[in-house]
Amino acid sequence: MLGMNVPETIVITEVCPRDGFQNHKTPIPTDVKKEIIDDLCGLGFSRMEITSFVSPRAIPQMHDAPEIMRYFNEKWKGIVRGIALVPNIKGAENALEAGAKSLIFALSASEKHNMANTRRTVEGSLAELREICGLQGYEEIGIGIATSFTCPFAGDVPAEDVVRIIGASLDFGVAHITVADTMGTASPLQVEKTLTRIKKEFPGIDFALHFHDTYGFGLANVLTALRMGCDSFETSAASMGGCPFAPGATGNLATEDLVNMAEKMGIGTGIDLARLLTVSRGISEKLELKLSSHTVGACRNF
Ligand code: COA
Ligand code: ZN
Fold first, then answer.
1. pTM
2. Catalytic residue flag (residue 133)
3. Cα(156)–Cα(162) distance, rounded to whole angstroms?
4. Minimal-distance CA residue to ligand 1 atom 12
5. pLDDT of 167-192, one tens digit each?
6. What is the DSSP string of 264-284?
7. Atom 7 of ligand 1 has which residue's CA nearest to it?
8. How far away, in angstroms, is 45 Cα from ligand 1 center?
9. 134: CA distance to ligand 2 center in Å?
10. pLDDT digit string, tens, across residues 213-261
11. Which residues have a Cβ under 8 Å from the Cβ of 233 and sit 6 or more positions away?
């Protein structure tokens, strides 16, 4: 019988308000961010990255994180799980003070990228993660492992480096793991190899995949992960995103491209594609995006 062994449903974490906005070249007014967050939350995502508590010198676009977090909590807390990215203890403290309940700690599998992005060694980041796990007031803490496959400065990243970070984080009590292709350069073969290694080392743990679409490999990598039983993905509406400290990387795999493919494969996402396309088109117009997703481009009259 023909057919693929893939999950019946997947969970999509929408990351546009964090990964998407952080790499946008012109300042986005706080009110526009709030409008976009409202539009996205109205689509029914169960999880969304809302903002990041980082140095405004490193990422000026995120200067309004406390205001965004408070606004989100007033309107959407209990409906959508709002996640705040933090790179260090100070970010975690600021996030908790602003009312964040779910944190994602950013670190990189590649030493060189971790240093460029957070000015820490991987050991230093892990020590800080342990400290953050000891803080009071959060409900959920996850890690986002940037450059899990390739690094803009060091090339291919050994799966062992990802495995080591996951092992340490699980020991600290971290509940969510995200394995990220920050550059969008990982091939499906590389994804298969690294995921095989992770699954062998930690059978039974759930982890999310975060693919950038720099070279158009995003959906191929999702398919690879789906066929390995993965059912959790992070994507951005309108294919926004990118790490300002990863030269060469472009936007995330577009949420609408993932929802479109999932729908055609009979995989449930809980997201209505037509409504999502309206929101993604709205984001593209509001922010004057030059690049947008395959699905937005192909379905002008959808
Ligand atoms: N939020 C806001 N300000 C912060 C901060 C945070 N999380 N962490 C540090 N700062 C401030 C300090 O107060 C200090 O300000 P001052 O000079 O006015 O006193 C300044 O930033 C430098 O502090 P320092 O302790 O030297 O920073 P650091 O070297 O420990 O950390 C990072 C630097 C991690 C904060 C910075 O590199 C960063 O924000 N990186 C995030 C990059 C990112 O978001 N990448 C994309 C997502 S993966
Ligand atoms: Zn990303």
1. 0.97
2. no
3. 12
4. 55
5. 999 999 999 999 999 999 999 999 99
6. HTT-B-S--HHHHHHHHHHHH
7. 91
8. 30
9. 26
10. 999 999 999 999 999 999 999 999 999 999 999 999 999 999 999 999 9
11. 10, 11, 12, 13, 208, 209, 210, 211, 222, 225, 253, 258
